[in-house]
Write a structure and sequence with these properties.
The complex is a heterodimer of chains A (288) and B (314).
Chain A (H helix, E strand, L loop, with lengths): L13 H27 L2 H21 L3 H18 L5 H29 L5 H7 L9 H18 L1 H9 L1 H6 L4 H23 L4 H15 L2 H27 L11 H27 L1
Chain B lengths: L7 H21 L13 E7 H11 L3 E7 L13 H9 L2 E4 L6 H9 L6 E4 H4 L17 H16 L4 H29 L3 E4 L5 H7 L2 E2 L3 H9 L5 H12 L6 E4 L5 H12 L4 E4 L9 H18 L8
Parallel strand pairs in B: 1-2, 1-3, 3-4, 5-6, 5-7, 7-8
The chains are: A mainly alpha (288), B alpha/beta (314).
């Protein structure tokens, strides 16, 4: 039965092995951070950070550094700038985010131009924008695991004050939580998560993995813990299923033109979001 | 990225600095001047340095040749044309390009600067090939340059009929040198035909088949690496097995293009003791076309006989 879904060589292919491990780790982090992003209403900041990560990835391929390092450094700088640009009022935050996003996209264009005109690193545009989990070198895995562990640990430790400052800043302030400090800390967590998912499905598409599973889970599950667990399940399923679909698509046409992993992952995420919408509508209909 | 391991970061930083400086110059005023033409010579633009070399071998002292793509560190597939190229093409009496979609920017520049006095030699058309062939690296085919040189000679004689005899004599000399190169290829074929190799890109495929070598790499993989898209994991697995199981005698990589896939493959070749040979996409500095081809053939022969790698032609 399983051979209907899994084409030959899937489990023994070393490229696929690395992709599955890295994909699962990234999906867990993205989902956990994503729930908080949706609760805090920071999807736009999340997307802006992907553009910032893009600039970092392009810069890294220009100087020959690991893309993860570039994604991370740029994310930390960009995240700091977004918070510094003005976080008092929602509108200011929106504008500050937009400014940082535009600047980052411009830098990306400049770096990618230098990469293609002066160095021999080909395919950088493709891998920075759309990711290439099948070509990630296994040597990146330890660093990714470390970043993932640090991100999840930080998120776990500050989950209560973070949630409080998201839902009710006044109450949080009364209890001694500093919203600006929380905001900065969360943007850094977000930057790390975006850097990780940029490796797997590319900078441009990492918003999908960040927001999609979390959004679907928040619609279906009750409570923050339930939603986080649901988002993790949905995220991991999307990435692993996407990798499997991309691998299988090699056999769908006689010419063996396979569908890129990022497209497959985003496709599964969209199906999950659509299913959650149907589910919540049915449930509401029954409740009436 | 494994190619040229240790000095790379520093060189890259220099390159970055150079790139930024260049951008500064470009911004300071787009008045980058075009090199002057020596009096009494024909202005020629060649899209790639290997075609520029053939033009100077045939045209000698009566041509001033400019090569558009001559940086052996840059990936020609990602090349973007600059305004100074447009000016060079506008005043050129003869333009030589590869065609087959490889240097489409030349066609764009020529259409933007129409001139009835300009002759254009397109290698793909000289050879009677379709505009969309899978492997555009025509100059690695030993039949290409003699045909292109003949077309160049006929155009030069039409532009400057006074030196017709001079051009004809230089063409004869070029053909004699190409005859020697063909003899080298035939000798290689007699000794090593049927040996198996793997490649990262189709760059040298025409030469490999002329040498009688069997390239076991799926063409889809080579085309994906050339086009900068991710090859399918199945194909990556196939090629990695060719190297790790030592089913091939050498791995031939494009010296001007590196990506995570090619660096991983080069690393596997190293640890499996499969020699790596760099094939250049554009003619490296300090070579002429025939010496370049001979150096590549020598490097492949060295890999087959001694198992030694050649990462850089010197």
């Amino acid at each position: 039965m399983i051979h209907w879904f899994v084409e030959p060589g899937f489990w023994s292919n070393p490229v696929v092995g690395t992709a599955l491990v890295l994909g699962a780790v990234v999906a867990v982090v993205s989902a956990a951070v994503g729930v908080m992003v949706v609760v805090r209403g920071q999807s736009f900041a999340g997307h802006a950070l992907t553009d910032v990560a893009m600039a970092g990835g392009a810069g890294a391929s220009l100087v020959g550094a690991s893309p993860l390092v570039g994604f991370l450094l740029a994310g930390i700088v960009g995240g700091g700038s977004i918070e510094a640009a003005g976080a008092e009022r929602i509108r200011d935050r929106d504008v500050g985010t937009g400014v940082v996003l535009g600047a980052a996209a411009g830098l990306t264009a400049l770096f990618l131009y230098f990469v293609s005109s002066s160095t021999s690193a080909t395919g950088s545009t493709q891998s920075v924008l759309f990711g290439s989990v099948f070509t990630v070198s296994p040597s990146v895995v330890p660093l990714s695991l470390a970043v993932a562990a640090a991100t999840l640990a930080t998120l776990f430790i500050v989950r209560r004050p973070l949630l409080l400052s998201s839902l009710s800043p006044e109450l949080a302030a009364a209890r001694g939580v500093r919203p600006r400090a929380m905001g900065l800390l969360f943007v850094l967590v977000l930057a790390a998560s975006v850097a990780l998912s940029a490796l797997v499905i590319g900078a441009i598409l990492s918003t999908a993995l960040l927001v999609g599973p979390a959004f679907a889970a928040l619609r279906v599950a009750r409570g923050l813990v339930g939603a986080t667990l649901g988002a993790i399940v949905a995220g991991v399923a999307a990435v692993e299923l996407g990798i499997l679909l991309s691998y299988d698509s090699f056999y769908w046409s006689a010419a063996h033109r396979s569908v890129p992993v990022s497209a497959c992952v985003v496709g599964v995420v969209l199906v999950e979001v659509a299913a959650s919408a149907v589910w919540s509508r049915l449930r509401r209909g029954r409740g009436r | 990225m494994v190619l040229g391991n240790a000095p790379r970061p520093r060189r890259s930083r220099l390159r970055l600095a150079g790139g930024l400086a260049l951008a500064g110059v470009a911004l300071a005023g787009c008045a980058a001047s075009v090199a002057p033409i020596a009096p009494g010579t024909i202005a020629v633009v060649a899209a790639e340095s290997q075609y520029a070399d053939v033009v100077s071998q045939v045209g000698g002292r009566y041509v001033s040749v400019v090569a558009v793509m001559n940086n052996p560190n840059a990936d020609p597939h990602g090349f973007e044309v600059s305004p100074s190229v447009a000016r060079e093409v506008a005043r050129a009496r003869l333009v030589v390009q590869n065609g087959a979609g490889y240097d489409d920017f030349m066609r764009v520049v020529e259409e933007a600067t129409p001139s009835p006095r300009r002759h254009v030699v397109v290698a793909q058309r000289v050879l009677g090939l379709a505009a969309s062939i899978p492997n555009p690296h025509l100059w690695y085919d030993p039949v290409t340059m003699p045909a292109v040189a003949a077309a160049i000679e006929s155009d030069l004689s039409r532009i400057d009929p006074a030196h017709r005899a001079y051009f004809a004599a230089r063409l004869t000399r070029f053909d004699a040198a190409m005859g020697e190169l063909r003899a080298t290829i035939a000798a290689f074929h007699a000794r090593y035909a049927g040996r198996r190799v793997a490649t990262t890109e189709p760059v040298g495929d025409y030469l490999l088949s002329a040498l009688g070598l069997v390239n076991d790499t799926p063409f889809r993989f080579q085309a994906d690496v050339m086009n900068g898209v991710d090859p399918a994991p199945q194909d990556v697995g196939t090629v990695e097995t060719l190297v790790t199981a030592r089913r091939v005698s050498a791995l031939l990589v494009n010296a001007q293009v590196s990506s995570p896939v090619t660096s991983t493959l080069t690393g596997l070749a190293e640890s499996s003791h499969v020699p790596v040979v760099a094939l250049y996409e554009t003619m490296p500095r300090g070579f002429d076309y025939q010496r370049w081809m001979r150096a590549e053939i020598d490097a492949i022969e060295k890999a087959l006989t001694t198992g030694r790698s050649t990462r850089r032609l010197t």
